[in-house]
Amino acid sequence: MTGGGRGGSAGIGALCVLAASVLWGTTGTAATLAPEVGPLAIGAVAMGLGGLLQALFAAPRIARHRTGLRERRGTVLLGAVSVAVYPLAFYSSMHLAGVAVGTVVSIGTAPLASALIERVVDGRRLTRRWMLAASLGLLGTVLLCVAEAAHAIDGGGGGADGGRSASVPATLLGVGLGVVAAATYALYSWAAHRLITRRIPSRAAMGAVFGLGGLFLLPVLLVTGAPLVASWSDAAVGTYMALVPMFTGYVLFGWGLAHVPASTATTLSLLEPAVAAVLAVLVVGERLPATGWLGVALVIACLAVLTAPTGGGFRRDRRMAAHRAGDAVRDGAAHRTAGADGGR
Fold first, then answer.
1. What is the chain's pLDDT, residue by residue, as a tens digit (344 residues)?
2. Rounded to the nearest 5°, which phi and psi values hold at 155?
3. d(Cα 340, Cα 109) in Å, to the nearest integer?
4. DSSP 8-state code for residue 339
5. DSSP 126
6. Whole-prediction pTM value?
7. Phi-psi region of 34 (alpha: psi -120 to 50; beta: other; left: phi over 0)
8. Rounded to an integer, what distance in angstroms lies between the CA atom of residue 211 and that of residue 312?
């Protein structure tokens, strides 16, 4: 994206990630509208068809940059496997532990996983500001999980179907799957961002990673997806999941990753659990204890700390993104001058 070197590019990237997070926050509630469809089928149709749509949307860009993608096939494969595992773990987590807990654990712990990946692989230093934001997000996640576990013991409705009470073992298993989802979310975000910073356009990078991941999910969809065609309402839920939160949301997320690091993007997407928790209460009928609402408030505070205009963390992200984009523009100009650009 050639506009990445402009002063407001990081802000635009952040807005794209936040918009994607709002769309993603609707997925748990949408899944409850098709109770006959299992979590594996929901995950496979959402990310599988959504990923294949991204690949079709980006097919000309993928073909143009196929050499660069082949050279980085290890990164593409890592991202694609993570894309395939993520929805299966994510929707199973919500099914077992409830929409609010499943979403908050899956998304709330992803920034830590993302930052650790960037620290180990890229040598990126963790700022005090980011540590404060991550601590608030983790504390909020823990409080929400404790609140839901206590609610399960008391016999309150905690499952993804709203009225079903979730047992403590089911809640704990759901939390564990949420951690798996967080790790895979961080991995495919890092992989896509790495491709983008290696001069693969966001559309080509996201299309390749998500398209291959979608292919990996097709066998799961074939085995588990029969209920999706059993009624018009179930088919409508599957279509919505693939087209709106997954296809549209991840196109926006790809644009965001072109301007901000993966650790910043995953932390910005902490808006998703707040949206999911509110929708779970208002639409699904889940009841969130006061401790759970405090947890949601801490997650929102984490988001506020990260995006506040004071301090240097977010501005450093903007400068780094601008420098990378500027280097990409200069390198691209040099290649075009030399006649080396194969995109014609």
1. 344 444 467 778 888 998 999 998 888 788 888 888 998 999 999 999 999 999 999 999 999 999 999 999 999 999 999 999 999 999 898 888 877 677 778 877 788 888 888 888 888 777 787 788 778 877 887 787 677 666 655 655 444 444 445 577 888 898 899 999 999 999 999 999 999 988 899 899 999 999 999 999 999 999 999 999 888 999 999 999 999 999 999 899 988 888 888 877 887 887 887 787 778 778 777 777 788 788 878 877 877 776 666 444 444 544 544 454 455 444 444 444 444 444 43
2. 90, 15
3. 43
4. T
5. P
6. 0.75
7. beta
8. 36
Please list, in sequence order, all residues whose beta carbon lies within 8 angstroms of the beta carbon of residue 81, skipping any fewer than 6 positions away.
213, 216
Residue given tokens 């993928």 in the structure block: 62
Contact 263, 115 (CB under 8 A): yes
Pick from 15, 44, 40, 42: which is nearest to 31 by CA? 42
- Token pair, residue 344, equals 């014609």
C-beta atoms surrounding 67 within 10 Å: 9
Token match 């014609």: residue? 344
Q: Where are the alpha helices (DSSP H) in 198-261?
A: 202-224, 232-241, 249-257
d(Cα 6, Cα 162) in Å, to the nearest integer? Answer: 46
**Cβ neighbourhood burial of 80 (10 Å; 0-12, 13-18, 19+):** buried
CA–CA dist 202, 213 (Å, integer): 16
Q: How many CB atoms lie within 10 A of CB 344?
A: 6
Query: Can you say how many angstroms the Cα of residue 153 is from the centroid of all Cα atoms in its chain?
Result: 31
| Secondary structure (3-state) at 116 | helix
